[in-house]
Amino acid sequence: xxxxxxxxxxxxxxxxxxxxxxxxxxxxxxxxxxxxxxxxxxxxxxxxxxxxxxxxxxxxxxxxxxxxxxxxxxxxxxxxxxxxxxxxxxxxxxxxxxxxxxxxxxxxxxxxxxxxxxxxxxxxxxxxxxxxxxxxxxxxxxxxxxxxxxxxxxxxxxxxxxxxxxxxxxxxxxxxxxxxxxxxxxxxxxxxxxxxxxxxxxxxxxxxxxxxxxxxxxxxxxxxxxxxxxxxxxxxxxxxxxxxxxxxxxxxx
Length: 253
What we know:
By secondary structure, the protein is an alpha/beta fold. 32% of the residues lie in helices and 26% in strands. Strands 6, 7, 8, 9, 10, 11 and 12 form a 7-stranded parallel sheet that branches. Strands 1-3-4-5-2 form a 5-stranded mixed sheet. Helix 2 (87-99) links the parallel strand 6 (77-83) and strand 7 (104-109). The longest helix has 22 residues, at 119-140. The protein is elongated, with a radius of gyration of 20 Å.
């Protein structure tokens, strides 16, 4: 069944209207007809099963069959702070991290970040990243759109993780791996703040500041990974150790 996005405000009635690019895709590309079933999601945690009633220019009308909470969201909330990388790498990461269930992603400027876009460029890129995150939702059938945060400084970024259960800085010079016994509080780990560096890695000064703010430094093995590879590897490990990629969670399915 094909899935499409619908605004939450439009999902309260039994008759739903799909507009914009999705409506054009249904009509001209997929050539769907009245009577066909479709899936919808609102990006706020709910999915919908509906049936196409009629197709108009620029609008598809569907009747609601059922509404239910999404089952594809991880119980672990991972927030990723990503040091600015070259533009195409950041675009790719937004899509891949959306697929991996990351709840929020935001870039920051590290000492060794090469790209340093101005405000106008950042606004355009942030808008594009939001669109990429929304499109990724259709492919991976998540219930919520990954939030895209504003670009911040290194110091501002360190303050954003203060209420998380575990704060982890992935650093190529650290020998200690991330493991399941890490505890950022006296209770379970529900919210993880993951800090990932730029192409040139973090400076020792940045690592010292992160440790002073309660971050645990961990490594990703003996090989030197590309910055974008490190981000994906780190998030997969966190989902495996604390989230819904563990064998315990897979066995429930």
